[in-house]
Amino acid sequence: MSYILDALKKAERDRLREDPKELDDSASSNWDPYQQEPKSDVLKYIILLLCIIVAVIGLVIYSELLTRPQIQPQPPAAEITKQAPAPQPIRQSLAPAPVNVSQPEPKSLALPELQISGHMYMAEGSASNRLFANGGSFRQGDKLDNHWTLIAVGIDGIEISAGQRREFVPYR
């Protein structure tokens, strides 16, 4: 009788090897009662998506703040009158009063040394037009150096000015 039982057990093992669908049988030695259920990653994806949306909204708001011109608040008129100096009595002296004479711009003022690495032209007079030079980014109205101011960024070049002098510099 033990031969018959051994033969039945062997036949059962062979049948389980041939048909892998039957491996989930709770009576077999392959069943793991501590197998954990797979966790869903949906919550992680939702949190990641919300973080990306918040970052994009923050970037849009921050870029709007950078492009908006900053308005300086003016003090009320009452404070301006308080800050005005009191008139001084006129004293007569022998020495003449110093005269502020503005020195004229030298006509031989050299153009600034610019290493233009690129430019961004959107449209005529656009606030998004940029000049990339000397490792920086300049837009209309920015100072290039002590004397020269960027007037306009065009398709073919830039327009700069120093005092009354205006120059057009091609991109090369």
Written overview of the protein:
There is one protein chain. A hairpin with a 2-residue loop joins strand 5 and strand 6. This protein has a domain of 55 residues. With 172 residues, it is an alpha+beta fold. The chain has three helices and six strands; from the N terminus they run αααββββββ. The chain has a three-stranded antiparallel β-sheet, with no helix packed on it. A three-stranded antiparallel β-sheet has the order 4-5-6, with no helix packed on it. Helices cover 29% and strands 17% of the residues. The termini are far apart.
Percentage of residues in helical conformation? 25-40%
**In terms of structural class, how would the helical and strand content be classed?**
alpha+beta
Please report the number of helical segments. Answer: 3
Strand adjacency order, main sheet: 1-2-3
Distance between the termini: 102 Å
Low-confidence stretches: none
Overall body shape: elongated
Average the pLDDT over all residues and give the rounded result. Answer: 77
The main sheet comes to:
3 strands, antiparallel
Number of strands: 6
Query: What is the radius of gyration computed over CA atoms, rounded to a whole number of angstroms?
Result: 41 Å
Helix and strand element order? HHHEEEEEE
Give the strand content. 15-25%
